[in-house]
Each structure stands twice: as structure tokens, then as C-alpha cells.
């Protein structure tokens, strides 16, 4: 769940159009990011998983969504240790939270347009 106060603080110096553009970029690429993570898990590609989880964590951090950030961080850490135990469940939780984030961002986007 997005911390809306921190979200607005994070983007306070940007024009509304820029905030909407940042949201749109994420909305346009999140499916591919999640697909890449799932493929990395399926292939046990820990190098790719670490890279993609870390990248997603950084992007999500912009939106001030602590639960989703934490799941991405956990996925990144588990990839570092090359531990498959519970990895799919962790990804499934991240996927679910990311979809909730997408829903929230879609609503928030309307506040900036």
C-alpha cells in the first residue's frame, strides 16, 4: 500500500505531467518485469533474478509502497544466496502486491491529471 504522504513528498518538486509520465512508464513495463522474474525463477537463473529483483525494488521504491519494496528486497536477497526454497511463493506474493500497486497508481494518476 502506497504511503500517499511520502509519495507526494517524493514528487513535490516535479510537475504533474512528469509524475504521470513516471507512473505511465511503470504501468507500461511492470508485466514484462514480472515475466522476467518468473522466467529467472523457472530457469534458476540467480544472476538474472538478482538483477531483475534489484531493479524492480528500485523502481517500486519511488512509489513509497513498503510491503512491495520489502518483497522485492527479499527476492533480491534470496537470489544472492541462490536459495530456491520458497522462492516461487515469494514471487507470487510480490506479483500480487505489484498488481495492487498498479491499481493504486492508476487511481493516484487521476489525482495528477
Query: How large is the share of residues in beta strands?
Result: under 5%
Largest sheet: none
Name the shape in a single word. Answer: elongated
- How far is the first residue's CA from the last residue's CA? 21 Å
How many β-strands, per DSSP?
0
- Name the assembly state: single chain
What is the number of domains? 1
CATH architecture: Up-down Bundle
Percent helix: over 70%
Sketch the topology as an H/E string, one letter per element.
Answer: HHHHH
Class by SSE composition: mainly alpha
**SS element count, helices:** 5
Low-pLDDT residue intervals, each spanning 5 or more residues? none
CATH superfamily: HPT domain
CATH topology-level fold name: Four Helix Bundle (Hemerythrin (Met), subunit A)
Rg from C-alpha positions?
14 Å
What does this structure look like?
The chain is an all-alpha fold and 113 residues long. The protein has one domain (4-111): HPT domain (Four Helix Bundle (Hemerythrin (Met), subunit A), Up-down Bundle). Helix content is 81%, strand content 0%. The protein has five helices and no strands. It has helices at residues 4-10, 16-42, 46-61, 66-81, 87-111. Helix 2 (16-42) runs antiparallel to helix 3 (46-61), helix 2 runs antiparallel to helix 5 (87-111) and helix 4 packs antiparallel against helix 5. The chain starts with a helix and ends with a helix. The model has no long low-confidence stretch (mean pLDDT 96).
Descriptive key words:
mainly alpha, Four Helix Bundle (Hemerythrin (Met), subunit A), 5 helices, 113 residues
Amino acid at each position: 500500500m502506497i504511503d500517499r504522504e511520502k509519495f507526494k513528498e517524493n514528487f513535490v518538486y516535479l510537475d504533474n505531467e512528469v509524475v504521470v509520465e513516471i507512473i505511465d512508464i511503470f504501468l507500461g513495463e511492470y508485466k514484462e518485469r514480472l515475466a522476467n522474474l518468473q522466467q529467472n525463477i523457472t530457469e534458476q537463473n540467480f544472476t538474472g533474478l538478482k538483477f531483475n529483483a534489484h531493479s524492480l525494488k528500485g523502481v517500486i521504491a519511488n512509489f513509497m509502497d513498503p510491503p512491495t519494496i520489502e518483497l522485492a528486497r527479499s527476492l533480491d536477497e534470496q537470489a544472492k544466496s541462490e536459495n530456491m526454497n520458497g522462492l516461487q511463493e515469494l514471487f507470487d506474493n510480490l506479483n500480487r502486491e505489484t498488481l495492487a500497486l498498479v491499481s493504486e497508481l492508476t487511481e493516484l494518476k487521476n489525482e495528477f491529471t
